[in-house]
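User: Is it possible to get a 3D structure for a protein together with its bound compound? The compound here is 2-acetamido-2-deoxy-beta-D-glucopyranose. I've pasted both below.
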Amino acid sequence: MTKKTPAPVLVRHVIWFGWKLVILLSFALCFFALLRLHFSSENSASSSPNSFSPARARSQISRDNFHGPPKIAFLFLARLNLPLDFLWGSFFENADVANFSIYIHSAPGFVFDESTSRSHFLYNRQLTDSIQVVWGESSMIEAERLLLATALEDPANQRFVLLSDSCVPLYNFSYIYRYLMGSSRSFVDSFLDVKDGRYHPKMSPLIPKGKWRKGSQWISLVRSHAEVIVDDEIVLPVFKNFCKRRPPLDTSKGKLNIKLQKQHNCIPDEHYVPTLFAMNDLEGELERRTLTYTMWNLSAAKMDNRAWHPVTFNYADASPIRIKEIKDINHVYYESEFRTEWCRTNSTCVPCFLFARKFSRGAAMRLLSEGVVGPFEASSLLGNLS
Ligand SMILES: *[C@@H]1O[C@H](CO)[C@@H](O)[C@H](O)[C@H]1NC(C)=O
Ligand SMILES: *[C@@H]1O[C@H](CO)[C@@H](O)[C@H](O)[C@H]1NC(C)=O
Ligand SMILES: *[C@@H]1O[C@H](CO)[C@@H](O)[C@H](O)[C@H]1NC(C)=O
Ligand SMILES: *[C@@H]1O[C@H](CO)[C@@H](O)[C@H](O)[C@H]1NC(C)=O
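Assistant: Yes, that's possible. Here is the predicted structure of the complex:
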């Protein structure tokens, strides 16, 4: 019996000591937490105009530390390399280096250097935080946002042009520079499409049906509109949930197809930016058209009842006459709205298109040799391609 008593006493002592320790620790933790709260609130108070908002920090930068000419940021969305780099290289050769910057979103880990690119302007212009993009899915919008966010870090970037890896310029640099800088509006294709049924009722109320828009993904933005896209935290999550591409018909899936083909179909990159801008009441600050010409294959749409398909320009399609026809287009008709958009920048009539897609290498070679982006020197081409 006597042997047993010390044990409980010891246990009780240990327990009591344990409780004291816990209480002491709790007090200490509370104290540190209060201390941290105090200091962090002091910190944010001292930098209060931009508190923690990256958006405000950016505007601050762009107002205070921006000297020199405003730049166009060329933002390339690439699958891998840029196959038309020889044409773009020649285009940038005829520019002032102080007037532009280049950013490329490519497959994660892909590096632009001597071995992958024929233009030194592209070396190391890839984003370091690029993501895997699935064409036609919302990862495409996220890649666009990454490009815009990175380009916004340079306060000199005042215009932001989104381009694909098959896009070509239809003019030399100085023409495109004057065209874009001469307008304080963004160029965003945006129209109502009542028939397509891509709006999902569950998007309401965050995205009201009346604000649903459609338009080309290939946009050109002024700085404040680029910020709206990068700072959006409301519309993008809704798109991720309710705007998804229906998988294409796959006969190997048999009966599963019946179910799959009933799924709601939505192409995020054709709706996101125009819808976001309509929701932010920015349509009055836009030229509601794209600067990038696309030739559509209407017969393909009629035949297999699918979406329109862009036609790829080959060498034979890129004749001077055909290119001139594209450059001479001065208005666009929006059938679903009975709206004719006369192409203007800053109230002056201008050609509608500065860029075109989709161009093969042969077609791009022809543009180059015809001096579309600048005076053509055969020797420079040989140097570029060797
Ligand atoms: C650029 O193109 C425009 C219009 O096509 C032309 O008038 C101008 O001379 C060209 N500028 C240069 C530097 O080649
Ligand atoms: C570069 O920018 C300056 C200032 O905006 C402008 O005067 C000049 O014409 C631009 N150069 C080209 C090649 O566009
Ligand atoms: C637009 O045109 C007006 C009048 O010609 C001019 O004063 C203004 O500077 C132009 N805006 C831009 C952004 O070039
Ligand atoms: C248009 O699509 C049809 C059917 O898919 C195809 O046969 C034709 O070659 C296409 N035309 C062009 C110019 O690509």
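Residues 1-7, 39-52 have pLDDT under 50 and may be disordered. The chain is about 40% helix and 15% strand.
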